[in-house]
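Lecture 7, part B: from sequences to assemblies.

Below are the input chains for today's worked example.
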Amino acid sequence: MHSQRPASQSCHIHPLYRHLVTLIRVLSHLLQIKLYDVPHTGEQSRPEYPSMDVPDISIPPATAPSSSSPIPVPPRVQRSTTKLSLTELINQTRERHIKARFIDLTDEVSPLRDGNAASSAFASKPHESMQPPSTKAAGPVSASQPAPSNEIRTPSIQEIRDLMRQRPSSNKLSTSSAADNPSTSSAATDPSTSSVASNPSSSSIASATSPLVPSRSPPRSFMSNSTTSTTQSGSKPSSRRKSRAMGVASLEMYISPIKDASQPASSKKKTWTPRSGKRMSYNADKFRSIITPTADATVRSQSLSPSEGRELRRPAGFADTGTDAALAVLSSPSAQTRVPFGAPPVRHEEPEATPSTLPSAIPLTEVQKLESGKLHTHEGFSPRENAVHDMFRPEGIQGVTESIGSLDLREDSWSPNVDIDIDQVRQLSLENVCEDGVQAIPVSTELMEHEEFESMEELVGNVSAGSVAEAPASLGKYRESNEEDGDADTRAIRTSAERTSGTSDVSGEISEQEECLAVLMELEVSDREAGDAEHPNSISSSRTASSHVSSRQTPETLRSAEPLNVVRSGGAASIGQLEDGVESYLGGYPIVTWKSYANAQRRLPPKYNLAKDLPHELQDRVNALPQSYRNSDQARLLFEAMIDEAMDDELNTPPISVINDVTDEGAPPWEFVYTNQMWNGEGVPPPDIKNLKSCGCVGRCDPKSKTCSCAKRQRRHLKQYIEDDTIPKTWNGAPFVYDGKGCLQFFGLPIFECNAFCGCDEDCPNRVVQRGRRYVVNIKKTKNKGWGVFNGQKKIPKGSFIGVYAGELLTVGEADRRGTLYNKFGRTYLFDIDFHHMGSEAVYSVDAYHAGNLTRFLNHSCDPNCEIQACYINEANFNKPLLTVFTVREVEPLEELSFSYMGQIDDDMVNHAKASNDAVYAECHCGSANCLGVLFSGL
Ligand SMILES: C[S@@+](CC[C@H](N)C(=O)[O-])C[C@H]1O[C@@H](n2cnc3c(N)ncnc32)[C@H](O)[C@@H]1O
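Predicted structure of the full complex, as structure tokens:
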């Protein structure tokens, strides 16, 4: 009003108009004030800012509005023209919140620290209280700090993107690595990418200047396979799709409220499954006889979002942001959590092998040693892929060729200028080699350089077939050394001759060394030392050499085969000094078979996660934001992105939407890490892979096989159920518990899937859990049960796998301790691992409070449509099966998925639960006609 009027307007405007303008300005001013007043009133009932009650506050960095004010809490009644920036908030709170684990219940989520407070909060309104702890009380107000606006701005997508890119330097590697590789847009979400990229050794190797390694990207052969298969064949999963990584430990659990901590441990918990001696209760029919199937009309009438597709789920432009954001925080830390047995996590413990650090004349075997210790597993790939990947990956090839190169460079003779598409070679090699179930290492690509092949196909085919063609015709069988009952399990190895002729001569048995010959790939290096240009292995005559070498490949000649020139040049390797996975050398080149690879892997420490390494930065950051942010759509999208990232170990699994048409929460509480994996707590041993039995089948296991180790093991465990009529003697398709479509045929039986050391393919019918969920489900807020899991728009068939009950794997002692507090808290995510086939008290429990996946949202129903099954994959410890959720009947579209927290119950249990004061024994709201009124047995 007091500003200068523009001269151009002064003589043309009617005075009335000026009055009108003045009036409008006054009104708008008044209105503005009024508007600003509104939130102040609202704030009194629901504080906009989180509680910042952690005493040891670190002074925020310079980006904070005030360096003397650690907490960006605005005075309630003071209007500020400064809008609070998300980045500022983060910067201010980051240090402090990184220190405090968001999920550390002993710190903020009162149940463990302040059980009574939590109890009262959750007991009165259990699910309304499921808010981030910071919202439960207004934080202290600092008068000295600048007052940000109380008009909280939802951060923009760009801000979130920027924010989430502010990662610890250790995390940057995977992001930049992925970003460096435009050819694999999904690289950022690939666990193997993260894993490799976050490994400084591998990264440094990969980044070394070698024309053999065109980029840092993971082998396209793996990535493109999956992608191609998905896009080209629609929903049909690729046979090379990713599977659960070998290191995913077992999970197990139960929901077990602990009534009285003073009671002895054995009586404190009631498992959801009957104990040993009550096997009858595992009879599915008998179990169902105590319930009356009903439709949950309430649930079904709730409309879910029709968006079931990845594209529909996120607005354009957010997909990347969400992926980046969640990945930035979650993927790298988890990728770095691999630790040796019981040792504290040591990151980057492997020596960095770079051209500068590699000795100039390092023997080949030494390089391999580095490699085997460093990159022997690639999360998300099948064991077969891993084996070949290790040998074909850029770092591997580079590492090996560098060693050769270093020797040759010492001789000033090796030219690394090979102009080939290494990815293509890898891809083709995979196809050629993998089919046989055995792998050989092509050490040098120089062969390809000097050969005169018309195409890559011809090149690889020729190398592969040519070298194998004249292998002993008697090759065909070998004994599975790991056969559990000593019974010989044989596997036919198709030689090249078989492939071409279509016949199979599998008579007789062969030595391991002979077997190796069947898959030998010819490798070439120049033999300067010998100065023999016409050396049979020489590059210049490689096509001839191929047949030459092959023609002298008899067991006798090969046993005495001289290690290759690289060894002669500077190494000590010989047949008698084999490295892990290397069965033999031919011409000095290592040969790896599937069996030797798998056995080598068993000798290495298994990969597993430690609970204390659970990443939580993302959650810390979100919990530091105002509740208004957590209620926003952005928070929901971020939550979905976080889920998406974790589902990388379930490739092709449909995305999960978060839906809330009941309250204004944007997403479930940010109190846990979304993960499909197990995180071992204190005192929980790593997976026992040494005693893991695995089959040597090629392709898909045949359930009728008399030799498949996995079929035999499953058959042994089925026997007792057949004997007691739990399953019919005429069960077709036995012994695998899955039918041809991957649906569980019988319930309550322990499942033994093929594992990481089995030779069979990813699409083996005995690999279901490890291939992940196939049906759309969503996490949705319910009216009186908190969040739940709901079916999408299509029916889910009976026997379908839904998910692994993932989380922290704890000793029962620790679970008891936590359970006492959870009971007061009113919510529990504890499950004991207690199946009748285990025959004893539970040794371990799973707690999904701090970490878990969609299954942690499965509510109880007295008429459940799901059940938990014990499933063993990469675990020989009988006490540590995975707890896997399967549907026990067809699930209608939009129906809630649920299971019984109680298993088989009796009146005593119900009465005991009803008499309890603990919040966890709240009333059951499952809504089924046969509802017993309680969730937990109470005994
Ligand atoms: C494993 S959690 C299930 C997910 C939970 N609804 C949430 O929002 O995180 C178990 C808790 O959910 C609630 N719950 C599950 N089933 C329920 C039911 N049928 N009736 C009432 N509350 C239920 C109880 O608070 C229980 O302790």
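Note for the exam: Residues 126, 130, 785-788, 826-829, 856-857, 859-860, 920, 922, 924-926, 935 surround S-adenosylmethionine (CB under 6 Å). Keep this in mind when comparing with the next example.
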